[in-house]
Amino acid sequence: MVLQQGKPIVTWGWAAPGAKLEVTLTQEHEVGEAAVRAAMKSGTRPAPPLVEKSPGRRVRVRYEEANPPMIETQKLEVTADNEGRWQAVFNSAEASFQETWLSATDGEGTIVLENALVGEIWVCAGQSNMGWQNFNRKGREAASADFPGLRYIAWEDSWYKPLEDVRKKITWQECSPETAPKFSAVPYLFGMYLHRYLKVPVGIVNIARGGTLGQTWCLREELEKIEHVSMKSILREHDEETAIWDDPRQVERIMADWEKELEASSKDYERKVEEAEAAGKKAPRKRLPKKPADPRAGWSPPAGLFNATVMPIRRMRIRGVLYYQGENNNFLRWTRYEHTFPRVPRSFRRAFGEKALPFGCISQPGWGTFGIDPELATVAEGYAIVRDIQRRALEGDPHAAMIATYPSGNSYIHPAEKLPVAEYASLWALARVYGEKVVHRANHFTKMEVVEGRAHLFFDSDPVVFDRWKHIENNAAWQVLPSPREGKAPITGFIIAGEDRRWYPARARQQKLDGLWTIEVSSPLVPEPVAVRYGWANWPTGNLVGRERLPVPTFRTDDWPIVEGLSYSEDAKKASNEAIASLRETAQQQAADRKLRQALLDLPQLEAERFKGDGAGLLTSKLARLEAILGEFEEKGMERILGEQGAEWRKKLEEARKAVADLRDAR
């Protein structure tokens, strides 16, 4: 176990109502071992130990501390309340690798927590990418993962009401080559980076569950403040379902109905098997009715994970929360996320009683189709919308950040490139939480100015980068602006729109405006731009990075409405799907129109470059284009398109062909 340094150390438990207890915090071996012997004598010593010690190996990492801080033994007298609950709050302590004991005794029985350390604790929450164990280079990393000062504990659970205690048997584990492969990748790597840099014990509490929604990581009280119909409908249905399962008679009826249905289905299946065997056919697949699931412990219900994982540990002092979730709000659930996500950090802060509790949100990796047309990407790319919701919700919060990770993605929803994800998160924590002088982010967009049909985007710099170059009057672009990841490559990932709100791929370059460096964004098809977006796609093509190759977060300069993505009812889901389908059809037509218009602009320029100084070649090329266009009128279907004017058109086309032939002869 790890106890949070620099904050009061809180321990709590249960005893007989009114019982008086002595609670002790110590690093004195004699006091600690005496508590262990008392616990063994009373039969209350945890088995297995609270921390699973790694098996013996020939070579082990050891921590050498010069003049380590020692906790002066503290003993507190507490009394259990009418419900048997008690709590003891000790003075704060400095981080160290000195073994620490926590014990409580009522004079008859003793319970002790041994092999604890004082250091840093982070809670990791979210869905499958937070819980995913596999990552690139895992085999090589695990072989050297011998760091007993890094501790890890994980569980997942859900309940419809807040719990006072964890319902599962869980165990802290030391990091070793044997245990590390079982740790979730991002929490483990994040903890490892902090452990190595800060040189203090680090404890990771991982409560992530795959496939969860933002709503399950909120306090119920926060969800009840949401006025949107989707959340009100979900809460109402959830309450109705759980109320049924709170009634034993209702549950008995449900199970009896299921057993009858199961018996009937089993008999029907046996009959079909006999018929198939008699006919010499393959037996049908066995499909029996599933046993009814208790909705009170649903997979991702409103406030469910928060009730069962956060609330039981809310008294624990922690350093911060690392959150990696949003993928499952991609699928027609982003409108709901607009309302639930801002309440996630608020809920964690309320539960742990710290208004400024650090909250790092890892945004979605790239996923899906790379290089999708912007017309389609701006219709309903759920990942892009979720990133935008997270960015807007955390903007201006000095104790929170959206951590961009889209370059780490691929076509698989669980990309294995987890090392950079954890590195980006740890850099944010080191800089913003621990005050270390490290570069922790790329340049952020600050404002846009439009001059002569070109949008100029201004960016700030990471504080460390800014301090590094602020004394130079005429900075180079690379010192104050993000640059392409590939070096001297074209900048990619920008799209641009005018008043008609049609999006076009944009060209971008580093350019000065009134003596200040900007990213200039433009398109010949958008003479009067009013909005720009960067990285707006499930899998962004954006290649801008700041110092240390940290990716520039996706952003948009507009505040135009996003199409609704709702799935809380069949009617809402149908309406969203129909609206999105209609918009996508229009977007496909606009994409084709844009490509045609762009080609008409590009072709003369390419032709001029190809035949520069060759007038005859240029004329031949243009005549060939004219002949090709005239030839297209002979294609099938043109007769129907020309309709009644077909004869007149054919006459004019013949005249045009003759004119082109005359030009060729006159060349």
Describe this structure as you would to a colleague.
It is globular and about 115 Å long. Among the domains are: 445-541, no CATH class; 611-667, no CATH class. 37% of the residues lie in helices and 20% in strands. Strands 1, 3, 4, 5, 7, 8, 9, 10, 11, 12, 13 and 14 form a twelve-stranded mixed sheet that branches. The chain has a four-stranded antiparallel sheet with strand order 15-16-21-20, with no helix packed on it. It starts with a strand and ends with a helix. The chain has 19 helices and 24 strands. The model has no long low-confidence stretch (mean pLDDT 93). It has 667 residues and is an alpha/beta fold.
